[in-house]
Write a structure and sequence with these properties.
single chain; 377 residues; Aspartate Aminotransferase, domain 1; seven-stranded mixed beta sheet; three-stranded antiparallel beta sheet; 14 helices; 16% strand
Length: 377
Amino acid sequence: MQMDLHQRYGFTPVINARGTFTPLGVSRSSRQVGDAVAAALGGFFVIDELLAAVSREIAGVSGAEAATVTHCAAAGITLAVAAAMAGSDPERIAALPDANGMPDRVVLPAGHAVDYGHPIVTDIRLAGATPVMAGRPDACSIDDIESALAHERTACLLLVSSRLVGGAEVDLAQAVAAARRRGVPAIIDGAAQDLRLERLLATDADLVVLSAQKYLAAPTAGLIVGRADLVQACRAQERGIGRAMKPTKEAVVGVLAALQERRDLDLEAWSARQHRKLAGFIEQAGRVPGLQASAVPDPTGLPFARACLSVVRGAGRRDAAALARALRAGTPSIWLMDHQAADGRLMLELVPLDDREIQVILGRLAELLAAPPGEAV
């Protein structure tokens, strides 16, 4: 199916070693999820029943009180903020993004003001709220958060669990506790953290926002998980700004199918498979002249590591940035993480890749490093 689409429409064939990267389509869904989506497209449903089924499934796998589905995680952040501001009040919901008379300050640690394709503060502003930074980009203490929360117009505390976060680590549980002391809801944006949902909920956060299409590998959708009353308030925003952020029937059914697969997943065995895949790649990549290969744990604690390729400088040899460009320019186009290329390092995430794709990457690396930089390969 995938190759048929590439051939039919002339799309660029891609090997994605960059991770759950939105411009590449994020992830691969299983055949079972795809079948469920196809079946949903051909039928009619009571959407409330679909959403109730997802809520039950998430409660079963995580212990959360409730959950709902929205168009994507970015929409989930906006709706969670709107719910903290307007609750389920119909007049307030209809008024947003005009926040006149509502609490409209959203506090977040300065290092959590990430940009994941657009600034997270845009998600806040779309609800009509005002982002308020606590601390500095390089450091934010719990006292800094307490101080920023101490304002009568504060709507919520927004925290981010992501490798994009900058500065010293903020203890999420302590930050949530600070919000609780002020009577302010705490929301965690854990977009790519569905494998750590239980740990994020264990911080006692009121809501956790996830991307369903990342490691859960569902169709594009966002999940809002947590306190039942706030989840219901997020749903209520569909009478206002949330109307433009609602999920489709096929997305909800696909999420449900993906959640059922997750419930049946042996995470320990899955992690062991990822370890073996990575170890094999590192062993083979380390034999390529000009490369040193090692494993790097996920900085947020996801249960797998990534491959780090250090490109050894040498006369007539491509540097890391040139190597990344050449990989992307080839056929298939190979994408990896090149944010450390200036330091001679390239990162690869192998989770969605099969052995054939891994061998293509290794072969292409060997070809490119053996050829002079100006020579086409």
